[in-house]
Amino acid sequence: MKALLIGYGSIGRRHDEVLSTFSDIEETHIVTKQTLSERVTFKALENVENIQTYDYFLIASETKKHYEQLCWLNKQVSGKKIFCEKPLFEKHYDLPVINNQVYVGYVLRFHLVLQKIKSLLEGQKILTVNIACGSYLPNWRTNIDYRDSYSAKKAEGGGVLLDLSHELDYAAWLAGDLLEIKSYQTKLSDLEIDSDDLVTLVGKTNQKAIINLVVDYFSQSAHRLIRINTNGFTLEADLIKNKLIQTHVTGEKEVFAFETLQRNDMFQAMHHEILFNEQKHYVCTLEQGLRIMQTINTIQEQNNV
């Protein structure tokens, strides 16, 4: 099995590292302008030779390039598996008919805490979902100045809405698609960026659950917290500390313990499901990824972004 990796920034290197652990992946070629010794590379996607010989394509470039690259691949190959990093695009696009299996990189679906929440919520009436996710952008990538990162630049698809769209995805995955949304998207802090650093929203899903979500780039204390209320219990989750507490209507509490996740565990599980599992239980499909883009588009339109 041959893979073609498009983009070799920090996330591209991580995907490359993960693919190297699969014995079925005989070789991974890379589209990058970087010079990589002992690797087969191409300066541009259009320069790739014998593109039909690849079995798995991974789009890990800047968000603003995803649409063009996905459409180009879709014209060149059919019946292949294509992975696209999240979010699908930087804004809403109308896609042509897709001739391949496309999956989106919402890797948090493979977090053990979220998978446990998913199973606990089965058959339950969800009342409210409260999500808070924040961290300090200058601490994200220690190898570069945050002001030079794509996250800092609106024109390159940066901004907290797109960067932290994981939260939009797992909110919909757990509680249903967002139908009604009232949002606020802005640049609030003194970070030297021209992209948004805060998004808040309240929404209602097709399962009639109320979602309250806040994501930001400026929290000095990193956090990824979820609180879900049902008629029978409340769930409190910390995705950074791998903690989940279930409080029943009787007052009884259950604390669920999880193994500490290693750096690439979720990525390995995601690619394994895409490549080797006939039944797709967790991975984000193209249809689901497009629905998240519709939510993103609604937020952007409400805030004239």
Main attributes of the structure:
Gfo/Idh/MocA_Oxidoreductases, single chain, 15 strands, 305 residues, seven-stranded mixed beta sheet, eight-stranded mixed beta sheet, Rossmann fold, Dihydrodipicolinate Reductase, domain 2, alpha/beta, 2 domains, 7 helices
Give an account of the 3D structure:
The protein is an alpha/beta fold and 305 residues long. It has two domains: 103 residues, Rossmann fold (3-Layer(aba) Sandwich), CATH 3.40.50.720; 149 residues, Dihydrodipicolinate Reductase, domain 2 (2-Layer Sandwich). Helix content is 24%, strand content 30%. The protein has seven helices and 15 strands. The strands form two sheets. Strands 8-9-10-7-11-12-13-14 form an eight-stranded mixed sheet. A seven-stranded mixed sheet has the order 3-2-1-4-5-6-15, with helices on both faces. The chain starts with a strand and ends with a helix. The model has no long low-confidence stretch (mean pLDDT 96).
